[in-house]
Amino acid sequence: MLAWLSDWFWQERRWFPEGLGWADLQDRDGRVYAKAHDLWVAIPIALAFLAVRQAFERTVATPLASLLGVQEKVRLRAAHNPTLESYYRSKSKQPTQSSIESLSKQTGRSVRQVQQWFRRRRNQDRPSLLKKFREASWRFTFYLLAFIAGLAALIDKPWLYDVKQMWEGFPVLTLLPSQYWYYMIELGFYASLLFSVASDVKRKDFKEQIVHHVATITLISFSWCLNYIRAGTLIMLVHDASDYLLESAKMFNYAGWKNTCNYIFIAFAAVFIVTRLVFFPFWIMYCTWVYPVTVYRPFFGYYFFNGLLLVLQCLHVFWAVLIVRMAIKFLTNNETVEDERSDRDETDESGDEEEEEEREKKNGPMQNGHSVLNNNHCKTE
Question: Which of the given ranges, 52-61, 289-298, 356-365, has the highest pLDDT on average?
Fold first, then answer.
């Protein structure tokens, strides 16, 4: 059954223009072509990336964080309370007002104390500033090196300057060593991101990130198997061109270098818009949608490849809206750029708690916005 499905799926008429097939991609006369089994190399590379990342975060990212002045907020731990802990784990991390009042009666604590307990408990589960800095510095390092390597691999290639040449001789395109390693390293890196997504910092666009990683891995693998390598290298270069700027802006934001973060973010926004909303759709996608049909009759592989590119472009538009919103906020109000992908579960509420405690020192204990004479404080709180 599996053999039949494999034969059906990989039919030549499905993936190649008319008159061409797998036989045209057999190595001969010293010419080497991409093979599907080469993709297995990406798995050990992905595992190696995970190991290198652990070493990098300990030996490079952590000292760098200290050098840049990354400071952790002191988070007060929630006192042990089985009733509140059970509600937190099984029902909700953000209880409603009626639930808070019910829990207040069950535990003998005031409403304010229950609210404070949930605030502290949520803060315990949030990623630390150092963790976020480590992640950003790792991705910054890879994206920067990948962009430099991709540029070096493509700088002397004619299809970098005339994208129509990506189709010249397709699919009989000889594989170059630089293209092989560029592909395998990029594929291995995105596979490592997919492996580590459960432990990385989660944001509001978590689902979009999963879709992006899966679409990217599928696109890289597909373009490799069907020898869309010239188009694939251009697409990877376009994506790496802006990502390292975003990660460096995050690093400076976590370090408290607000002005540096803001200006780098504006540079990132400009590069992102030019590469992903202008160059990607109007040059690369134009030459994958329009130009091929002037040379070949449309075939399934043509539609499949462009469908994946369309998924990426939809994600580009989604992220561009968030990026432009943040850029406008900074340019019009001179505010600090905040990552709009962050959600309530990621945002540290320690500042809210500190402000509330300061008000208490000045005005006395508060409950529901009013002073109270006795709020049944526990000394252990």
Answer: 52-61
pLDDT (tens digit per residue) in 74-113: 667 777 888 887 887 787 778 888 888 888 888 888 888 8
* Distance between CA atoms of residues 149 and 167, nearest Å: 23
Q: Indicate the angle between helix axes 300-333 and 206-225, nearest 10 degrees.
A: 140
Tokens of residue 275, six digits: 């590469």
pLDDT in tens, 288-321: 888 888 888 888 888 888 888 898 899 899 889 9
Closest CA to 372 of 28, 110, 122, 108: 110
Contact 344, 118 (CB under 8 A): no
How does DSSP classify residue 79?
Answer: P
Which one has a higher pLDDT value, 121 or 313? 313
User: How deeply is 162 buried, as exposed, middle or buried, from its count of CB atoms within 10 A (0-12, 13-18, 19+)?
Assistant: exposed
Single pTM value for the model: 0.76
CA atoms lying within 13 Å on the CB side of residue 301: 25
Give the number of other Cβ atoms within 10 Å of residue 107's Cβ: 17
Tokens (6 digits) for 233? 């290298």
Vertex 381 angle, CA 84 and 107, to 5°:
35
CA distance 228 to 220: 9
Alpha carbon of 302 to those of 37, 49, 128, 143, 344: distances in Å? 22, 32, 45, 29, 42
* Secondary structure in 3-state letters for 89-111: HHCCCCCCHHHHHHHHHHHCCCH
Q: Which two tokens stand for residue 223?
A: 């373009």
3-class DSSP assignment, residue 204: coil
> Can you spell out the DSSP letters for 306-355?
HHHHHHHHHHHHHHHHHHHHHHHHHHHH-PPP--TT--TTTS--HHHHHH
- Rg of the Cα trace of the chain? 26
The two tokens of residue 71 are 């400071």
The alpha helices in the chain, defined as continuous H runs, are 2-9, 12-15, 42-56, 62-68, 82-90, 97-107, 111-125, 129-154, 177-196, 206-225, 229-254, 258-272, 285-289, 300-333, 350-363
Q: How confident is the model at residue 369 (pLDDT cuts 50, 70, 90)?
A: very low
